[in-house]
């Protein structure tokens, strides 16, 4: 497969292709204010590329699982491209990521009042940098469940703000640091006087049809009555649009780069592979994007749940396999878990390993950890290095400072559930878990190219 360099003739200046890819990632983020929206945007791109949906509740035949397909479970999606001639001996090449990001999540009884101001009650979802959510206009986005089993996606315009206390009322803040109590200090303001939050959500909701896709113009559905809202999974979202910046626009600033940068790269990689020629014996190329990674993955749509294994078992059975052949196919399969990681911060060099110092703009990094917080091993390192070489993509390494324990990903969980060789990678970020993160403009394209080469096998 041929690739286009992410850099122009000057090493510091992103190429036109890299800029276009970064801007397309920005469009993907804008269309994906919640995990549920990210799944729908991924599905929309897949449908445009010729993929067709399956329902988990239907019987799957060999014809159903052959070709380019996808299936949705809540805030997660699995999609695959089965090459011609695939059977029960065919292995998988899997790329994985997660659709959720740290946020403030709406409580079930969200209306709060303080004197004349209306606020909304929120919980802390994941591990956000709380101070980064202050003094920003915020949207609400997520899923509504309605009477009669209906569902709807909701995405409001900017309606919220968490105002910081003025320096005149906290004279020591710049010397002693900002101290935020998640309950007292993080409840956003939504209006003056009484505000009906359910009415606000209903006014900006779009119904889903019976298959779980957005209703089309020729599918008449009744408008949503606020009293029909039974429950919701709704988070706050930074309203500022993604943007390129820097002396040569070598950086991208955006919300939710952790981890929509990986979902976008792997979606586009799967589309590329599905549209390419693959030789005899090519693996099944599969994408999984799980929800709830930021809170431990322990859900029916998270990596610790059964979604991926359910789909693989059903695919293999439809292709004529049994338990023994499936386990053999698993043993020859491989997973690339992509999740954004830390670039070495120029203002805090002591927080990183003194030797291994990942940099912005130098390609995806292999994440390695002796405590198995990342699943990468020597076999996986060789496989990813080969994919990068095939794609003409540079790569680097990440290890933590021994005094700074690292986070984890879907990688170790997926490896534990399936027994497949699993590799943890990701692009480098600064400001990770901020309401607005940053990466190098070239890196989304490099991850996309490496992922496509990996899927080719």
From TrEMBL:
GO annotation terms (biological process): proteolysis
Top-level taxon of origin: Bacteria
Regions crossing the membrane: none
Known EC number: 3.4.11.-
Pfam family, one: Peptidase_M18
Cited InterPro entries: Peptidase_M18, Peptidase_M18_dom2
A GO molecular function held by the record: aminopeptidase activity
A GO cellular-component term linked to this record: cytoplasm
Cofactors (names): Zn(2+)
Keyword line: Aminopeptidase, Hydrolase, Metal-binding, Metalloprotease, Protease, Zinc
CDD domains: M18_DAP
Family, similarity comment: Belongs to the peptidase M18 family.
Protein known as: M18 family aminopeptidase
Organism of this sequence: Candidatus Brachybacterium merdavium
Classification of source organism: Bacteria, Bacillati, Actinomycetota, Actinomycetes, Micrococcales
